[in-house]
């Protein structure tokens, strides 16, 4: 189950209110864009809205009717999920989707929907095909698009969407209630990186996260221990270590880089905001470099790591070092 109706109304007030109305009046918007942080339930909210479109209750999904059961079992025939979180979305995927949803294999007047999760992970070809498809709206089909980076979504897509922010649970509250065995600073990072416990566990058990986590802690410590020369020497150390570890079979470099950058951003933000949380021991020592850290954050945000991480890692760390050293 993705949400109960009550949970959804409580956790995602604005979206729930909007869809209660949509489902009642039976008039679908052409497309919606769900955006939020890495730890926001983007896919889950998209799935629950989709389930609601098919639910026999004509309201937010009841989780009990036959249609809901079918949806929750993962075999609803009229529904498609393209998940950019698992694999790059390619033109073939969009062509298939367009063929399916424009064909009359969808019954007349029957509403249906599809999700494109993490549209930032789409090829240019596929994006063009999607734009073309969106130009021929079908009032019975709702497109649900999600992203963690709203500013990277093309205006031509944005202009076709109703836009909603998906609320995430506050990582600090999660840490306060945490009773497991993971060290709290590590759990705090995980709570910033993923929504579900299952996903947090998967990330926590991966070599990529483990290495990125240790590197971030070392990096942060080196910054405050000797700010004058740390960044550059540490940057060389980290690049060397990455080179060694990345030779291990099955090690996904890009994944590791992305964890590393995300955790750095989180730490810098917390240092700038002087947050009281499990990272405080380290971030409070960095607070005096606020101006530099703020610039480092915008630098990290501006880079399109997801597509270029592998090529630019050395360069990115060098630039970052420079910004912090200044
Ligand atoms: Zn139902």
Write structural notes for this entry.
- The chain folds into two domains: 5-165, Rossmann fold (3-Layer(aba) Sandwich); 171-325, no CATH class.
- The chain contains 16 helices and five strands.
- The chain has helices spanning 5-11, 13-25, 42-54, 66-72, 91-102, 124-134, 155-158, 171-176, 184-193, 197-204, 207-225, 227-245, 253-273, 280-286, 290-302, 305-325; strands at residues 31-35, 80-83, 112-117, 141-147, 162-165.
- It has a five-stranded parallel β-sheet, sandwiched between helices.
- Helix 9 packs across helix 10 (197-204), helix 13 (253-273) crosses helix 14 and helix 15 (290-302) runs antiparallel to helix 16 (305-325).
- The longest helix has 21 residues, at 253-273.
- The protein is globular, with a radius of gyration of 22 Å.
- The mean pLDDT is 89.
- The structure holds zinc ion.
- Zinc ion binds next to helix 4.
């Amino acid at each position: 189950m993705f949400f109960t109706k009550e949970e959804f109304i409580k956790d995602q007030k604005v979206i729930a209110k909007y869809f209660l109305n949509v489902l009642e009046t039976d008039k679908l918007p052409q497309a919606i864009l769900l955006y939020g942080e890495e730890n926001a339930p983007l896919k889950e909210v998209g799935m629950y809205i989709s389930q609601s479109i098919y639910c026999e209750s004509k309201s937010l999904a009841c989780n009990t009717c036959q249609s809901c059961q079918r949806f929750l079992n993962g075999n609803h025939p009229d529904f498609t999920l393209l998940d950019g979180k698992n694999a790059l979305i390619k033109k073939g995927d969009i062509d298939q989707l367009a063929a399916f949803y424009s064909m009359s294999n969808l019954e007349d007047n029957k509403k249906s929907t599809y999700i494109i999760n993490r549209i930032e992970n789409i090829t240019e070809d596929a994006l063009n095909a999607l734009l073309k498809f969106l130009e021929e709206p079908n009032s019975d089909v709702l497109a649900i698009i999600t992203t963690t980076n709203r500013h990277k979504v093309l205006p031509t897509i944005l202009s076709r969407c109703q836009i909603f922010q998906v609320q995430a649970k506050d990582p600090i509250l999660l840490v306060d209630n945490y009773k497991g065995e993971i060290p709290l600073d590590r759990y705090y990072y995980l709570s910033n990186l993923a929504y579900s416990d299952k996903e947090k566990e998967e990330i926590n058990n991966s070599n990529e996260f483990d290495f990125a986590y240790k590197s971030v802690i070392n990096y942060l410590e080196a910054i405050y221990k000797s700010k004058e020369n740390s960044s550059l020497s540490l940057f060389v150390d980290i690049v060397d270590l990455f080179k060694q570890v990345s030779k291990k079979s099955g090690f996904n470099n890009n994944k590791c880089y992305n964890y590393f950058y995300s955790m750095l951003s989180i730490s810098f933000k917390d240092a700038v905001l002087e947050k009281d949380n499990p990272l405080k021991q380290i971030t409070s020592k960095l607070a005096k470099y606020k101006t530099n850290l703020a610039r480092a954050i915008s630098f990290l945000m501006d880079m399109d790591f997801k597509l270029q991480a592998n090529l630019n890692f050395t360069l990115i760390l060098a630039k970052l070092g420079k910004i912090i050293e200044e």
